[in-house]
Amino acid sequence: MVAAETHLHQEVIPLVESRFRVRSDRPGRAVMGYSAGGTAALLQAFRHPDRFAAVVAVSPGAEILDDPYVLGIVLMVGYLRDQGYGVPATHEIFYRNFNPPELAANAAGTGMTVIQTSGDGCVTPASADSAPCRAEPAAANAGAAQLEAGLRRNNDYGSELFSRAGLAHTHLRLTGVHGANNHDAYQGELVDRLNDVFAHPAAESETVSYRTVDRHFSVWGYDVALDRPNAEFASLLGARRDARSFTLAGTGTARIITPAAFPPGAELRATVTGDDGDPRTVAVRAGEDGRAWLTVDLGPVRHQDERRIPGGALPQPVTSIRLDG
C-alpha cells in the first residue's frame, strides 16, 4: 500500500540526485523497468512526459486492459488493488488511467525516446538456436517461456496502439525467455541508445497536449485542478509553452496556473471561448513568479464515471483560452 508514484518522485529521485553526481534536468533523466516494472516505466514516462527524456520498458505488459492474458496477471498479483483501486468491472476508468496506450499521446511530439523490448519465449525453431535460447531453453524454463511469448504478443499489440496514438517509438523484438536476455538487451541495444539521448537532446515542440483522469495535474509548467463529482478523462490540448493559448476538454470547474511566462505583475486579458463559440474576456494579473491564475467553468458536470461505450466516450465540452497583454 505504499503510494508508489509519490514514493518515486518525492523520495527516490530526490535521494538519488542528492547523493550521486547525476543530472537533474529532463534531458539527463530516463526511466527504465523490467516486466511489471516495464509497465510502470511506461506509465511514469507518459504520466510525466516533462520529466523524462527517454523510457525503456523491458518485457513489459504494454497494454493491460484488453489483453486477457496480461489482465489476468494484473488481477492475480493485485498491482492496482494494492494502490487502492478495485477491478475493471467496478473501476474501469482508473484501469484506463494506468494503461499505457491510453496515455501514449502525452509523450507524442515531446522528443521523448520510447523503447520497448520483448523476447519470443524461444518457442520457434528459428530462435531456439540463438545464444539466449541455448543458455536458457524453453524446455527447461517453461513458465518463463510461456510468459515471454505472451508478452511478445502483448507488446506487438501495444506497439500498434502507440502508433495509432501518434507516438514514435522502437520495439526491439529479441529472442529469449522472460528475464534471460535482459543483460544482452541492455549491453547490446540500450546503453548506446540512452547515452546518445543524453548527449543529443531532442528538440521539443512549441505546443504540448496531455490527458489524465487525475483531478489535479502539473505538467510542462501548467498546473490544473479540476472540481467535478465524477471520474473521467480531461485533456489539456495544444498548450503553448509560452502560455499564450491552450484548450481544456472536460467538465466541471478548472483552476489553471500557467507557466512562468509573463513579466511579474503584468496585466493580462484572457479570452475564454466555450462550446457555444461565444468568447468572453476577463482581466488576469500575473503573480510575482510570472504565472497567471484563472478559474474557468468547463461545462455541466456529470455524476457517472466515464466508461467505454460502443462508438467511444461521451463528447466533452471544449474551452479555449488565449492570454494577451
The computed structural class is: alpha+beta
CATH topology-level name of the largest domain:
Rossmann fold
Given the structure, what is the number of helices? Answer: 9
Question: Low-confidence runs (pLDDT<50, min 5 residues)?
Answer: none
* Count of discrete structural domains: 2
| Average pLDDT taken over every residue | 94
Helix content: 25-40%
Order of helices and strands: HEHEHHHEHHHEHEEEEEEEEEE
Number of strands: 14
What is the overall silhouette?
A: globular
**CATH superfamily heading of the largest domain:** Alpha/Beta hydrolase fold, catalytic domain
Level-1 CATH class name of the largest domain: Alpha Beta
Give an overview in words.
With 325 residues, the protein is of the alpha+beta class. The protein folds into 2 domains: 9-199, Rossmann fold, CATH 3.40.50.1820; 207-324, no CATH class. 31% of the residues lie in helices and 25% in strands. A 6-stranded antiparallel sheet has the order 5-8-9-14-11-12, with no helix packed on it. A 4-stranded parallel sheet has the order 1-2-3-4, with helices on both faces. A 4-stranded antiparallel sheet has the order 6-7-10-13, with no helix packed on it. The mean pLDDT is 94.
